[in-house]
Amino acid sequence: MKAMKKIAILGSTGSIGTQTVDILPSIDAEIVALTTNKRISLLEEQARALRPKMVCAMDEAAARELKTRLADTDIRVLSGMDGLIACAAESGADIVVTAVVGMVGLLPTMAAIEAGKDIALANKETLVCAGGLVMRAAREKGVKILPVDSEHSAIFQCVQAAQGNPIEKILLTASGGPFFGRTAGEMRHVTREQALAHPNWNMGAKITIDSATMMNKGLELIEAMWLYDIAPADIEIVVHRESIVHSAVEFADGAVLAQLGIPDMRLPIQYALTYPARVPCKAPRLSLAQTGKLTFFEPDCEAFPALNLAKRAAEQKGDRGAVLNGANEAAVGLFLDGKIGFAEIAERVASALDAIPFQKAASLDDVLAADRAARAHVLG
Questions:
Q1: How far apart are CA 145 and CA 161, in angstroms?
Q2: Do 355 and 377 form a contact (C-beta atoms < 8 A)?
Q3: Which of 365, 367, 352, 351 minimizes the C-alpha distance to 317?
Q4: pLDDT tens for each residue of 137-173
Q5: pTM for this one?
Q6: Quick check: bond before 52 cis, omega within 30?
């Protein structure tokens, strides 16, 4: 009998994390670690239901309160980055779901890889900032990087169906966010509330803003470049408003394979955890007849300048992904706090890419230094 899979979920109280917990009854799994930043009430609820070996709250004060709440259990309560790394690398997990948001995911992901854990990757910033280092470490340790993002899962599923034939081109689909069709001038008047109103997906605030600027798709282009070892010029971004075609690949003979489904993250999460097996999923089934039509458009890079910034970072490689991501995280934070306008997000990222000298990013220290420099430039 096949052993029960042991899973650690980093970011179990966020959007991807809670949906991962939701599909657990469909798979044969034991949860060994859960983490949050500050949402300790939900983490306590998850911990009592799933009984992991260890939990972590990144926020030190939240961790202290969580330890008090769980004092009647034998669950180990950790805190900070050290705790996050321990949950990734020392919890006994077979596979680690990296569902934390932002640069915070890099060090625990690398620690998990070094410990020989497979990665169900939802934290795209890990590859955006240090894709070359991460993929090399994964190859050396013989671990799988299994994509959780709906687009990269779609590409991954198409690659599995290709039976070893190399892909010539990736068609990376984008919903277009809430501002599809608006001009660059109109984008200057976008409000926080408008930017947080995504038409198709229910996501956290940061990724929802990234979708509105289309930086999210730029980050996914960089992620795809590293995951599938493909040149940025061979990745085409296509706006697909219905979010039914999650992405596609093209082969040497011109054949295109696509993966379709309802916009629901539970299916790609589950496939990453059960690969290569497919088991019944709680996500609703697709009806093409009810969908009616599928539409596709070229993206407007004038209205969404973040796309060209990401393409520039992808082509240059080195530390440009870390600069791009660090500057974007800082700028999005300023926008969410009401300190800058929507259009200023991309402007501040562009300024950081121009001002910070290029480095090769040969080590994690180089990546972290580029991230710090980008944030300081945007916040200064």
A1: 18
A2: yes
A3: 367
A4: 999 999 999 999 999 999 999 999 999 899 999 999 9
A5: 0.94
A6: no
